[in-house]
Design a protein that fits this description.
This protein has 395 residues and is of the alpha/beta class. The protein is built from 16 helices and 17 strands. The strands form 4 sheets. The protein has a 9-stranded mixed β-sheet, with helices on both faces. A 3-stranded antiparallel β-sheet has the order 12-13-14, with no helix packed on it. β16 and β17 form a beta hairpin. Belongs to the anaerobic coproporphyrinogen-III oxidase family. HemW subfamily.
Length: 395
C-alpha cells in the first residue's frame, strides 16, 4: 500500500462534481423475506410529506454542491412505482427542476411487477424515465410465494408487455438463484422464460442471507433449506452459459447486457466515481466524503425539511479509496487498468501500490494481466467464481 508521504502527495479525491444521482423511495407494497433494504410497507405512510422533504433535500444538495450535468439517474427503493401517477409526476418534476439532466441521460427506475399500469408508465415517460428494472426474481410461482413476493410470474410478463407498449425499450429484470428449496431445473425454467422476453439486460443475483430479515431468523434456527454450495455454483454456471450463449455480454459479475445496454449508472459505482445520494437511508460519495442519510421515514422528513439529513459523514482516505477502486473495478469484465488508477489517484502506479496482491492472485489463477486495449488486470474464469476471495485481498 501507499506510504504516508505518498498519501500526502495525492490530491483530494474526486474533486469533480458527481455526474450520477441516486434517489431512494423507501415504500413497498410488502416486505420480502430476504430484504434488508431501507424500506417500509407503504400503507399508512406519509408519502406526500416524504416527497416534500425529498424536494427540500434536492434544493439543499444543489446549493451545497452545485452539479454541472447529470448523466445518470437511478431511482431505487423500496418500490418507487408504488407512487400513484400524481405523486410520480410530482416527484419526477422536482428531479428535472433541480438537476441539470444531460440530453442523453440514462434515467432508471426500479419497479415491481404489477405496480406499473399504463397511466403510471405514461407519467414515468413524461417525467424522463427511459429505463426500467423489474424485480422478477423467479418465474416459479411457488418460489415467489416462499420468498415473500406478492406478484405471480404472469405479472412480470404483463408488466414487460405494458412497458414496451408505453414506449420503453431499455428494460431489465432481476433474477435470483440459491433460493430456499430451489432446484437447478427450476432455475433453468426461469431462465428460459426470461430469455423469451427478449430484454436487453438481465441482473442475476445469488441469495445472501442478511441480518434483520425473516430469512436470517430462519437461518439461525436452521429452518432455511438453502441449496448446497455445489448446486448454487451449478446455477451460476448455467446462468453464464445460457446468457452468454444467447448473445449477452457478461460485463459485470452479476449483470448481462446486449452491447450498448450496460447499466451506465451502476458502472459509476464499479468505477468508484462520485455520486449524489438522496432520500431516507441513501448513501452518497462526493469530494472524498461518504455519507449515509437518516433512515426512518418520519425522522428523515423532520431532518430534511430543515437541513441535509445526514446520519453520518466519513472522510475516505486515499488507501481506502484505492482498495475500493480495486474491489469494485474487478467486478467488471474488463477489470481495472493502470491508466484509470493513475487518473483517479494523482498519477500513482497500480503495480507499485498493489504489486504483492496482484502477483499472489495471478499465481493462484484468479487474476490475469492484460495489455489490450490498455494494461490492467481482470478476473479469470476461476476468479469470477471466487470473486469474494479476490476482492478481500484489497481490503
Amino acid at each position: 500500500m501507499t506510504t504516508n508521504s505518498q498519501s500526502a502527495a495525492i490530491p483530494p479525491l474526486h474533486t469533480w462534481t458527481p455526474r450520477a444521482l441516486y434517489i431512494h423511495i423507501p415504500f413497498c407494497t410488502n416486505k420480502c423475506y430476504y430484504c434488508d433494504f431501507n424500506s417500509y410497507v407503504a400503507a399508512g405512510q406519509p408519502i406526500d410529506a416524504y416527497l416534500d422533504a425529498l424536494e427540500n433535500e434536492m434544493k439543499l444538495t444543489v446549493r451545497a454542491l452545485p452539479p454541472t450535468v447529470i448523466d445518470t439517474v437511478f431511482v431505487g427503493g423500496g418500490t418507487p412505482t408504488v407512487l400513484n401517477p400524481t405523486q410520480m409526476e410530482r416527484f419526477l418534476s422536482s428531479v428535472n427542476r433541480h438537476f441539470p439532466l444531460a440530453d442523453n441521460v440514462e434515467f432508471t427506475m426500479e419497479a415491481n411487477p404489477g405496480t406499473t399500469d399504463m397511466e403510471k408508465l405514461a407519467a414515468m415517460r413524461a417525467g424522463g424515465v427511459n429505463r426500467i428494472s423489474f424485480g422478477a426474481q423467479t418465474f416459479d410461482n411457488g418460489l415467489l410465494e416462499r420468498i415473500g413476493r406478492i406478484h405471480a410470474a404472469q405479472d412480470v410478463i404483463q408488466s414487460i408487455a405494458n412497458a414496451k407498449a408505453a414506449g420503453f425499450t431499455n428494460l431489465s429484470i432481476d433474477l435470483m438463484f440459491g433460493l430456499p428449496n430451489q432446484s437447478l431445473q427450476q432455475l433453468k425454467d426461469s431462465v428460459t422464460t426470461a430469455l423469451e422476453l427478449d430484454l436487453p439486460h438481465y441482473s442475476l443475483y445469488g441469495l445472501k442471507v442478511e441480518e434483520n430479515t425473516l430469512f436470517h431468523r430462519l437461518y439461525q434456527r436452521d429452518e432455511l433449506p438453502l441449496p448446497e454450495e455445489d448446486d448454487e455454483l451449478a446455477m451460476y454456471e448455467h446462468l453464464m452459459e445460457r446468457l452468454g450463449g444467447a448473445g449477452y455480454r457478461h460485463y459485470e459479475i452479476s449483470n448481462f447486457a446486449r452491447p450498448g445496454f450496460e447499466s451506465r449508472h451502476n458502472t459509476t459505482y464499479w468505477h468508484n466515481e462520485p455520486y449524489y445520494g438522496l432520500g431516507a437511508g441513501a448513501h452518497g460519495y462526493a469530494m472524498g466524503l461518504r455519507h449515509i442519510n437518516i433512515k426512518g421515514v418520519q425522522p428523515y422528513i423532520d431532518a430534511a425539511n430543515e437541513r441535509l439529513p445526514r446520519l453520518e459523514t466519513n472522510v475516505v482516505d486515499t488507501e481506502e479509496a484505492m482498495g475500493d477502486f480495486m474491489m469494485v473495478g474487478l467486478r467488471l469484465e474488463e477489470g481495472v487498468t493502470a491508466d484509470a488508477f493513475a487518473r483517479q489517484f494523482g498519477g500513482f502506479s497500480l503495480e507499485a501500490t498493489f504489486g504483492p496482491q496482484l502477483e499472489k492472485l495471478m499465481r493462484q489463477g484468479l487474476l490475469e494481466r492484460v495489455a489490450v486495449p490498455a494494461v490492467g488486470y481482470r478476473l479469470t474464469a476461476q476468479g469470477i467464481l471466487l470473486g469474494n476471495e479476490v476482492f478481500g485481498a484489497f481490503i
